Amino acid sequence: MSGLVAGYGATEVLHGVSLCVERGEVVSLVGRNGAGKTTTLRSVVGNVAPSAGTVTFRGEDVTDLSAEATVRKNVAFVPEERRIFPGLTVAENLQVGRLGGGDTAEARDPEAVLQEFENLREHPDRKGAALSGGEQQMLAIARALVAGADLLLLDEPTEGLAPFVVRQVEDLVRNLNDEGIAVLLVEQNVGVALELADRHYVLDRGEIVYHGTSDQLRENGEVMDRHLGVT
Ligand code: ATP
């Protein structure tokens, strides 16, 4: 995305955000509360209409596509609140993913996807509401895969999860990346971002204030302190 300006009503939240995720990469977008991370993801998937700038995916301008049309391009957004269907079973939630899925050959068979998720495959008949926070996060990601995602936008996937479940989500993201799925990861937890991503963008008050590799970010005490509140 390049020079993205977006907000809500008269309030401009993003003031010209540019970032890129190459094929097969994991890239993080980190920053304090309210910096505009979620708004950036929403702009990519067409939930927020940018007032300037462009979003391109595989060389195609997708800036003005609706949320539904963006999903059909195999870009999937897993929001922070996870939005699985609590009254539907694990298997049914995955079927729903297929309904909204991409229009290329990359949409995946729900059964096959389920087999990749150790925690979910044992109990395909459990209702969404009966799942733990970590299992709900896994299910939300699994549903995006069924829809055929090859760019996953994950909004704080480890939020509220116990440390051992955070490790499971990290393993999952690594496995997906090994399969060639690119990930744009929004994280409050800089440790998770450093663990998973190759490159990092730091967003502060709607502007990218830093871009670097994990080693560069780790060693940059000023950025860690001033923009991320980590010392
Ligand atoms: P957080 O981790 O707290 O979600 P964030 O970096 O993801 O932070 P955003 O959620 O993108 O930040 O919010 C950026 C700004 O936009 C905040 O000031 C927030 O209050 C505002 N905002 C977010 N959603 C809306 C909305 N639907 N309507 C109006 N303002 C909003």
From TrEMBL:
Pfam families recorded: ABC_tran
GO biological process, alphabetically ordered: L-amino acid transport
Recorded family membership: Belongs to the ABC transporter superfamily.
GO MF annotation, one: branched-chain amino acid transmembrane transporter activity
Species name: Halorussus limi
Domain ABC transporter: 1-230
UniProt name for this protein: ABC transporter ATP-binding protein
Record keywords: Amino-acid transport, ATP-binding, Nucleotide-binding, Plasmid, Transport
SUPFAM superfamilies named among the record's database cross-references: P-loop containing nucleoside triphosphate hydrolases
